[in-house]
Each structure stands twice: as structure tokens, then as C-alpha cells.
Amino acid sequence: MTMNKQAGAAQKGSKPTMAAFFDEMRYADGTIRPAYAKIAEWMNQQSKGGMARKQEEADAIFRRLGITFAVYGDTASNERLIPFDLIPRVVAAQEWRFLERGIEQRVRALNLFLYDIYHRQEIIRAGRVPADLIIGNEAFLPQMMGFDPPGKVYSHIVGTDIVRTGENAFFVLEDNLRTPSGVSYMLEDREAMMHLFPELFAAHRVAPVERYPEMLRQTLESVAPPACKSDPTLAVLTPGIFNSAYFEHSFLADQMGVELVQGSDLFIEDGALYMRTVTGKERIDVLYRRVDDNFLDPLAFHPNSTLGVPGLFDLYRAGGVTIVNAPGTGIADDKAVYAYVPDIIEFYTGEKPILSNVPTYRCSMADECGYVLNHLAELVVKEVHGSGGYGMLIGPHSTKAQLAEFEKKIKANPSNYIAQPTLSLSTCPSNVGAGSAPRHVDLRPFVLVGDKIRITPGGLTRVALQKGSLVVNSSQSGGTKDTWVLED
Amino acid sequence: MLGRTAASLYWMSRYIERAENIARLTEVGYRISLTPDIGFGHREDWKSTLIAAGCYEDYLARHKEINSEKVKHFLLFDRDNPSSVRSCLETARNNARAVRTALTREMWEALNSTYIDFTSVKQADLGSGKLPEFLDWVRQRSALFRGSMLGTLLRDEGFHFSQLGAFIERADNTARILDVKYYVLLPTNETVGGDIDAFQWETILRSVSAHRSYRHVYKDRYRPWNVAEFLILRPEMPRSFCFCYGWIERSLEGLSDMVGRPMPSLLEARTILNDLKNGHMDAIFQSGLHEFLNDFLKRNNQVSAHIAEDYHFL
Does A264 touch chain B (CB under 8 A)? Predict the structure, then answer.
């Protein structure tokens, strides 16, 4: 079977529903699904004024806590609040079990793929993934060749983006294996809900998410480097307070009870990484970095970076420190590699993928590119290396001029783009000014990979609060809501 | 604890203390400006406030004349004045953001909500006598922050660095206020101990919320001699040098214990504290109050520099 057909097979096997939107609360005939029974009842009991007051209270909580984020290119209001939607999203127990199995399989396979890519590259030899897709890829780090990270884990913290289009139709949209963010919102959304609506929790058995920081700590400790002989010291590395995810960096360090460090706090001496403390120095064994690969070490990567530590990468390879996530994981969540993930799962696990990919057209392939250019108005086109909803074309919502512009861009550099059908994302009830209304959502569960795989039930639900919008990114005025996995 | 974290805690506290002190000074300026002008052409109340706030020159660099609206704007809202209440709160908050993990949630919330509420206030909203209410609010918010800190923060090194920032700043402010009084406020052709003088001393004491506690301690009318002693040597007066240095010494001892040996900053603070404990107003006035205050400000700055050095502030 050729690779081209493989990717094609995934498309035909599980075509996303294109017609009506799937409503997670109601069946097509308008009756309420069992998982939402009590939520629907509760929603009926709420007065408009009551919800408005709760919404104000919620916004005040988030603002006071400083849960804000910076939007790039938005200098006027540097810190903005991510809108919080009061109505929780409910995931039934059996739905979650299915997702959990699928995510675990996928994350396991992708870590095996990373190990292989940075060692013998069996998958390339077997002809299942083209060599130039990997070797010529910006996200591939030749510096990682032949190195065994502790536990052979590359991506320890994963945020798998999942969308739903039908009763049993779940698709993985992105794998996010580098430094996924959003977990602090998952935790704070739950905090806020428990504060605002304790009675709702009394009426449901909601799987807890609060253990995430503890599980993160266990995960990080389980991948201590060979040089560490006692209890490992952990630290979170942030680019600083002006980074858009700074709140999350400090939140996680705080929740784990570890130091939040910047590059300027760190130095390397006698084969170890140290932080400058008030009494001198303290050794760091595991560095959970929220700084991109390129900025980690000016000696190994971007020479002008001041966010990292000179010599960090050499020390990492020598086993003196563990960098989490490992550098070079981007090769496995690259949007061009994405199309091959079903093959990757089969190749390493011998199993069929449990979760489907969204059908993906690679503009690097002449025939697929031709299809994309002919159907631009129906497709979503993404830059292979873009993220956060930037540099993206949503065909059905674009003007003729925008379409023409993207056509030009794709023709100029086809391998920089992929395209996917416009997905009919499922909807959940959301609190909008005039009561509740269905809005489109996606889901980012958070996965921890160390001595074992730990998946927090639920995750971050992002919601496109603008009527009809399918873009859930916070940078594009999306909001978040609490996500409840019901226990049996 | 990271050296950078210690530095941020220290400066966070310094700037909150400074915001409070600027608010206190502004209130003094405002009160003085309300008193009837009794001649002599001395309407320099706002000038003295600017000098006490340490930003008279900065003000002159931007404005030609001393005008009460401009001064109020400069002291409270001006982003270009690093010591305006707004700038202080912003700097304090940026420092706090950088060390969120070292703060309790209550401390952060107290500071963050203060900053957020402050930014929604405009000078235009403060007309017709609303200024004192607003300045009260600033003081209350500073007290809220201090209270959250005292009530929730672990008594570890982070607490010591926060305390140091607050008391170094407070000592600095008290010295400036006193210095201004003695050399600027008093009109040259007015005698020491005259009516204006007494009124001005009272406002000084008011600015440090000590006009009533003074009566309790001295059971006497406001006399420059006593006021100076009250603000310099009295260990029970919570804004006096002696009180500030008692706490500075205590925190530096705590930190030195952690290191395992007395650090230079502790030795220096101890010397200052001993000088204050053994000090007499006679001697201070004899050698000149202004000289004494200048010398104290210099030593206070030195302690600050030594703290930064001893504990690896970046």
C-alpha cells in the first residue's frame, strides 16, 4: 500500500458529518440526552438576571486572580481575560472511556515514532513515511539523533485537540506535543464552577481534575536524569512575565511547589544545571521548560536567544538534566506529518487507530494540491508550522480576495500548507447575553507521559462564543468552559 | 529561593509602601493648600510635597509652574513619573507577577485588584472634595496588602525580603518628610514654634497618622524637638527610624541564620540600630538635623545595596 493511499484510506473510512451540527445536549428530535438531564433542568431554573450576576462574579474572580493572557499584536489591552462560559460541557462516562483509549494509543505511538525518528528510522526504511518529509522538515532536530531521553519519553505533556461531529464521530485535530498550554484554565474553570454552583456538583458525580499538578510532578520526577541520585529537584522555565502563557507557567510551578525560573536565573557548572538562589546555588534535575526549542540554548540553537541557558543541550545529552518536553518533538505534531499519524499508530502498535484523523490534503503532493486549489472555498487551509489560529484560511467564510490571496500563497510554496474539510464542530449550550444558545466547541484533554500514561478526565473545552463561528482559539475571541466527565 | 525572586519581593514591597507614602504626602499637600493664606507670599505647600516625594526636579523638568491640578496628576496618575501612585502600583504588580509562586493568593489578589481598580479612576472624577476619599482608599488598599501578607505568608525568606523592602522604604520616606519640614516648609520670617509652624508640624504628623499618638506619648503641644524625636528615635512609633531598623535587623538576622553567618548587610543595619538606640536629640540638633537626616538616607541606601549584594539580587 502506498503512503498516499494510506492517508486516503483514513479519509474514506470515516467521513465527518457535513450536514447539520451535532448538538451534545439534545437529540435531533429536541429531547435531552441523559448526561445533560440535570444540567437542562438547572438551566431552566436560572433567571436571566441570576446568570448575568454569576457571569459578572466569574469575570471578577478571573480578573482578580490575574488569569489573563496577552494577545500578540494587541498592544492596547495587553492583558485580556479569556471569556468564561458558565454552562459546563458534559461528557458521558462511556464516551470518555473511548476517548481515553484512543488518546493513550495515539500518544504512545507518537512517542515511539519520535524515538525511532531520532534513532534507526525504521519507519522511513519501511517506506511508510517519506524521508524528505522528516529530514527536510524544520521541526526535525538532527542534534537529537542517537540520544536516549530518560524513559525514552519525548513528549511528556501532550494536549490532544479533539473535535466531535456526530454521535460516535470524534476526530483528532492536532496532537500538540511541544509545549501545549491551557491546563491552568482547565483547573481554574473547575475552581470557579465549584465556587459559583456548588449545588450542581452535589447533583452529579464529576470526575475530579484537581490531581493534575500532583500527577505532573510525579511524571517529571519519573524522568530524572541518570546523574540524579536523590530526590530530583524540578523547576519550570518561563520566557517571563510578558509571555502570553505566563500565568500558566507560574500557576503550575506554584501548584507543584517548585521554582519558576528564567534563563537569567540559570547557569551550568561542573556538569550540572544550577539556579542562582539567595544562599548561592541549587541544582536542577528536571526542567519543565515552556520556552521553544530554538531558544533553549544559544550554543546549540538560536545564537541570539537570552531566554535559555548556554550549554544546556550538551548537558542534557550528557545525562546531567532532563528537558521536558524533549527538544525535537515538533517533528511528530507537524501538520504535514499529521496526515501520517494513522500509519504511525499501525506501524508501532500493530493496532488500528481508535481515534480518526481529520482528512487532510497535503499541498506538497501535486494531485492533492490540485484538489485543494479547486475546492478552496470549502476547505480550511493551514500553514504547516502555524498555530493559534494565525495564518489560516476558512474557505466558506472567506471573501473572493482572501481566497485569491491564499491561492497565490499555496502556489508559491505548496509544501507549507495543508487543507482539511470545514468540520461541523459539535455544539454545547453556552451562556450568551439573551439566555443560552448552542455554540461550537472542541476539546483538549491533557496527557502526561512518564513512568506511565496519566490522562486527566475531561480537559479544556474551548468554545467559539460568536454565533456561527467555528474558530475556538482564545486569540480569536474564543472562550472556555468547564468540562465534566461523569462517573458511572 | 531564587535571587531574582528575592529582588522582586523586595521591590514589590518597596513600591507598595511608596504608593502609600505618596498618597499620604499628597494628602498633606492637599490639607495645607486648604488652609487660609496668611500672607508672607509663601504658598509653597505643593513644592514641599514634591520635594518630600523626591520628585521636585522631575516635576520641574516637565512643568513650568507649580499648579495644584498638575501636581496631583504628577503624583497620582503620571505614567512618566516612576514614583506616581500609578507607576508604583504598576511596578509593584509587575514584580508580583514575576514571583506569583512566592506570594499567597490573598496577597496577589489584594495587589492585583488594587491596580485594576486604580486604573479605572480618572483625575476628573476627583473634583469637589473627593480627593481625600480616594487617598484614603489608596492607604486602605496598602493596608489590605500588608494585612494579607502578615496573615497568610509563610515566615520564611520571602517574608524577610518583603519586610526589608517595606521598612527600608518607610525609613527613607520618614527621613524625607522630616527633612522637608525643617528646611522648606518653614517660612524664613516665621519663628519656630509659631502658629503656622505648629499647624505644619501637625500636618506632618497627620501624614504619618501620628498626630494623636503624639499627644498620648508627649502630652504636650506640637514641638519640633519632640516631633523629630518621635519620628527618629521612638521605638514604639511604627514609622520611626528606630522602629523600622528594629524590623530590618530582625529580618536580616533571619536571613543570616539561613546562610549560617552574619552578612555585611546585617552588621551595617545593627550599627545603625545601635546608633539610634543610643541617640539623643540634643546631639542630633547640635550637629544639625539636616546633616543627620542626609547621613541617615545615605546609610539606608547602603544597607539596601548590601542586601542586594548579599542575597544575589540580579
Answer: yes
